[in-house]
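Worked problem 6 (solution included).
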Amino acid sequence: MRRKTSLVLLALAVFFAALSPLLRWYAFPRLAKIPANQYQNMVLEAKDATLIDYTDGMKAKKVSKVTIVQTLKGNVEASEKIEKTAGKDVVVWDGLSYVVGPDGKMVSRIPERYIFDAHTQDPVHATGESVDGDPVKRVGIEFKWPFLTEKRDYQYFDAQARTSAPIHYKGTQTFRGVDVYYFEQTIPWTKVPFPKTMPVQGITPASLARTGTTRWYTTVRKFWVEPLTGAPVYGEELHKEELRGGTLLGGRDKVTVFAGDVKMREDYIRHTVDLVKSNRSLVLLMTSYLPWGFLILGLLLLALSLWLEARSRGPAATKVEEPEPVTA
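Solution. The predicted structure is:
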């Protein structure tokens, strides 16, 4: 009986020991993915910012606050269509960056379609990939880092410049009780397109181009990323835009369109941190808790199996026979 039990325990030990690496290195990369129907929005603010007033001689003025609302909405229908030819799980995010001034009026409105691999976050090039209606071909990541983010530089796509540039790993920090990797990217002054939708009736990118005036942009982009989920828990940008040259500026060399330190609003920081902590527990379950737990359980079962086997093969007890009486 002991031998049969030891064989059963040995089989279970092999099963759990084999399941440990399979769960971590085979199951996790296939199960961990961004859902196609995910929806999220974020509100950022730049307080005491500089903003151009198009109605008052194109002058730059100090304002109390500029608000940026960023929305990302999963387009399930588009993702399913692309998956048929891509041969992989694909996510399509229809994004919108909507900027309003202190009076609540629109400053700019830039839509974006971001198509990427649901597991790796690598871009997937397909019809519809665009920024403000302009076709683009992304290199690197945008919005989200890969699961199990590494301590290294990544290529990060800049929607304003329509190009990618390195975003540098700068070290490990603690943010609101979460261990995070800090990344930073600097985009030098770069000539960028005018938004298709302008805040003043009658002004269009085509009309601005006829004046010879150009739009320039620079930013220092900062992200604090939770490495297991690859989700930023906080973001900030030191953002500047200028109009330069042409007849539109009335002889001036340049005018500030917008300048400010853009930061996530406090209520969205709290919500994001709570959400990332919850998702982090799920990733830990798949990459650490269950694999190590199964491995330890397998070793314990193996030890118990060997112990029972040793007991079953021990020396048999010697039977002592009573001496027979001597007969005459």
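Discussion: Residues 123 and 138 are 6 Å apart (CA to CA).
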